[in-house]
Amino acid sequence: MEFRQLGKSGLKVPVLCFGTGTFGGANEFFKAWGSTDVAEARQLIDLCMDAGVNFFDTADVYSEGRSEEILGEAIAHLPRESVLLSTKSTFGFGKGPNEQGSSRFHITNALHSSLKRLRTDYVDVYHMHGFDAETPIEETLSTLDDFVRAGKIRYIACSNFSGWHLQRSLDVSERYGWTRYVAQQAYYSLVGRDFEWELMPLGMAEGVAALVWSPLGWGRLTGKVRRGQPAPPNSRYSDGQAGGPVVDEEFLYTVVDALDAVASETGKSVPQVALNWLLRKPTVASLIIGARNAEQLKSNLEAASFVLSPEQVERLDKASERPVAYPYWHQRQFERNPAPPSYR
User: Fold this and answer.
1) Residue 58 and residue 110: Cα distance in Å, rounded?
2) Is 341 part of a structural domain of the chain?
3) Is residue 173 part of a domain?
């Protein structure tokens, strides 16, 4: 398993990270993700460890904390230093006005609760799950810095920030000498390339790695959704509830056609090629993959076992290219504002 530097830090992470949003199924929303119990979770985690994937991602809101609890139980047989744990807070975890956001009050309560559920004294990577516009950035970052100095957090990251949210946060950290975000967890896929417009160039310039969530485009790139075929039975596509940003069907089929061609050349599956395409992109440190069972997990783990050629990546780039928003289309007309490199 390849390991990559996590941004401007000394930490190295595997290029695949196992996401545990499928653990728990505590309510109807998360049951749609999965309902993995402790025994099943331990089996999946052992498969990951055998493959060299020792990075596990969760969040306090996943199944109302049950995901963290199951993950904590499922790794109890492993030496703590052998695994990397990532969790998040910000979103509402309770009904009170202070049970959400990135205030000192909420972060303090959320972190201590996560540590208890995970059965650990520290978290390796702690994310702000979203941007909180009502809390001063100074309050958020000073709180996170305090916990890093106390040894309860090793590294901090953000998720779902805009470019200016992240840049301002980095500037505040630099101004006061506080710990800085070394990674950003972001949506990025062959059918969702907005990340390349601003967040990727910012990550390249400031040393912020990308941890990619939903790398298969909300399940659209599993190979089950194809031109001229009915939606897979018993899936969110069969009732029109695909989820995530809207994707034009003809565009999706064009991308899947290109994936099919490259998959045929490489002897790999459509999702394996879609994941490997992301691993060829700048700033990407790790892809957060999910699985409801061992078969799915083993297939996804194979995505890191090969390397697409520059020509294959270019073909996928062209098939998935979409018009960019202003001011990016205007900037790219000037040769001194090039797009990010197309191949890593």
Assistant:
1) 13
2) no
3) yes
> Using an 8 Å Cβ cutoff, are 126 and 157 in contact?
yes
Best CA proximity match to 253, nearest among 318, 319, 321: 319
Q: How far apart are CA 15 and CA 85, in angstroms?
A: 15
What's the pLDDT tens digit per position in 150-169? Answer: 999 999 999 999 999 999 99
DSSP string, 287-324: EEE--SSHHHHHHHHGGGS----HHHHHHHHHHH--PP
Residue 9 resides in a domain: yes
Tokens in use for 313? Answer: 């990546």
Catalytic residue annotation: 62
Strands, E assignment, 148-208: 153-159, 181-187
Q: What is the pLDDT of residues 280-329, one digit of tens each?
A: 999 999 999 999 899 999 999 999 999 999 999 999 999 999 999 999 99
Single pTM value for the model: 0.95
> Any idea what the CATH number is for the domain that residue 130 is in?
3.20.20.100
How many domains is the chain partitioned into structurally?
Answer: 1
14 belongs to a structural domain: yes
